[in-house]
Design brief:
This protein is α/β, with parallel strands linked by helices and 265 residues long. It has one domain: 3-Layer(aba) Sandwich (Rossmann fold), CATH 3.40.50.300. It has ten helices and eleven strands. Strand 2 and strand 3 form a beta hairpin. The chain starts with a strand and ends with a helix.
């Protein structure tokens, strides 16, 4: 199980940036005294076999939260626990336990798709036999065999996304984290990615994925966490999230929570 407890990240502006922001007419309430509290207090947990949808308007703090999960950013405070162990204190352990995909997850362009995935598998210490088994399994799930021998710089957007996902999960992590995995994909590629995420429901893995597409949440997610202005404003089951609005639909619940937050701010 993965748990985020009181997670926070503060950035300090340099003098030039701080001065420029003081002149802005409309300020983010998270700004002040030369700092920006991008994430102030995020709490959630995802049990094995469950999928959590991470929601929020642009600039809410979702990507910063996910970058802390990926170990690209060190939290200012709070904990990220996997099976009770605080991975913020052991980034190497975190990379073994977490598979992370964002829009910037890269591939080596001169290598083929299979060479890329096998390379990252070896980086994680997989044996030859285990690696071959994992490649076969993942390439089948993501329908990648037809372009496995293509160089990465010859791939379409959908092919690149699937290859990046394969790279992220080759080491069979305990937690999968996807940052808007279907953005920019055609319908067929998006369905392949969503089917892949759904294949982990009921397994030993916990899945977190951020999205702006609420139909994906409705299709896949057991839980929802909505972040706004750096704080988790809702965490609960998808059904509980639905019941926030009078109409009982996710879109209305999202708008109601975000509008409430604007009024408070």
């Amino acid at each position: 199980m993965i748990e985020l407890k009181n997670l926070a990240k503060t950035f300090v502006y340099d003098k030039k940036e701080a001065k420029a922001r003081q002149k802005k007419e409309v300020k983010d309430p998270r700004e002040g005294d030369g700092v920006f509290h991008a994430v102030k207090n995020v709490n959630l947990n995802v049990e094995p076999g469950k999928v959590l949808g991470l929601l929020g308007p642009n600039g809410a703090g979702k990507t910063t939260t996910l970058r802390m999960l990926s170990t690209a950013l060190q939290p200012t405070s709070g904990q990220i626990l996997i099976d009770g162990k605080d991975v913020t204190k052991d980034p190497i352990y975190a990379t073994k336990q977490i598979g992370f995909l964002s829009g910037k997850t890269g591939l080596y362009h001169r290598l083929t798709v299979q060479e890329n995935v096998e390379y990252f598998g070896r980086m994680h210490g997989l044996s030859k036999d285990v690696l071959a088994e994992r490649v076969e399994q993942i390439f089948t799930l993501l329908d990648m065999h037809s372009f496995a021998s293509k160089r990465a710089d010859d791939l379409s957007t959908g092919m690149t996304q699937r290859a990046s996902i394969a790279r992220a999960v080759i080491h069979n992590p305990r937690v999968l984290v996807f940052d808007e995995p279907t953005t920019g994909l055609d319908v067929i590629s998006a369905k392949t990615v969503l089917d892949f995420i759904e294949s982990y429901r009921g397994t030993e893995m916990s899945v977190i994925f951020s999205t702006h597409h609420l139909h994906e949440v409705e299709q896949l997610c057991d839980q929802v966490c909505l972040i706004d202005l750096g704080e988790s404003k809702f965490f609960g089951s998808t059904e509980e999230f639905r019941q926030i609005s009078d109409t009982g639909d996710l879109y209305s619940s999202f708008l109601k929570l975000v509008e409430q937050q604007k009024e408070v701010a």
